[in-house]
């Protein structure tokens, strides 16, 4: 083995005086100026308002979700001729209850016949009210035998139109 090379005293002194690299302090995530703090506060407030609006809309549409759940049960009853007349009555009841949940009682409760059909059509976005007018108005007051003999595609159209009306009707503020 070779003897370690002897360094001159000046180099040895210089090597002993060396220190580790000094790392700067980490940069703070806290905004350095008041402007950024204001922007962060405004963004937090805007997010709060968006969440609040979503919660209000979700709660305001609870009646729609309940009506759609009831409609699913009715659509099963419409498939069978024996339960079809009762299902037509139940469908009319669900539509009326949906309207009563969305509009003031004095506007909706007394509506029947042509007035009820016009109401459905007036508060409709996609033409579901016209389909409901054609189907529901005819079948709600027919004899049980006639309603029981309805083709299944007519009952399917009735459920689709009712679902569209429940999902898409607009309520005037």
Explain how this protein is built.
The protein is built from 9 helices and no strands. It starts with 8 loop residues before the first helix and ends in a 5-residue tail after the last helix. The chain has helices at about 10-15, 35-60, 60-80, 85-100, 105-110, 115-120, 130-140, 145-150, 150-170. With about 170 residues, it is an all-alpha fold. Keywords: Membrane, Plasmid, Transmembrane, Transmembrane helix. InterPro entries: DUF4381 (IPR025489). This is DUF4381 domain-containing protein.
What is the gist of this entry?
With 173 residues, this protein is an all-alpha fold. The protein has 9 helices and no strands.
N-to-C SSE string, H for helix and E for strand: HHHHHHHHH
Count of DSSP strands: 0
The shape is elongated
Q: CA-to-CA gap between the ends? A: 96 Å
């Amino acid at each position: 083995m070779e003897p370690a090379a002897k360094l001159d005293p000046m180099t040895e002194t210089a090597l002993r005086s060396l220190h580790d690299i000094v790392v700067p302090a980490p940069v703070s995530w806290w905004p350095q100026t008041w402007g950024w703090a204001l922007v962060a506060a405004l963004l937090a407030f805007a997010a709060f308002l968006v969440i609040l609006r979503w919660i209000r809309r979700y709660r305001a549409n609870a009646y729609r979700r309940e009506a759609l759940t009831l409609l699913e049960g009715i659509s099963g009853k419409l498939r069978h001729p024996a339960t079809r007349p009762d299902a037509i009555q139940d469908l009319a009841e669900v539509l009326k209850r949906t309207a009563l949940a969305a509009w003031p009682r004095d506007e909706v409760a007394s509506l029947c016949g042509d007035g009820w059909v016009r109401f459905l059509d007036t508060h409709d976005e996609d033409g579901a009210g016209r389909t409901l007018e054609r189907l529901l108005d005819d079948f709600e007051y027919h004899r049980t035998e006639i309603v029981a003999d309805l083709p299944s595609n007519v009952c399917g159209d009735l459920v689709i139109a009712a679902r569209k009306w429940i999902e898409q009707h607009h309520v005037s503020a």
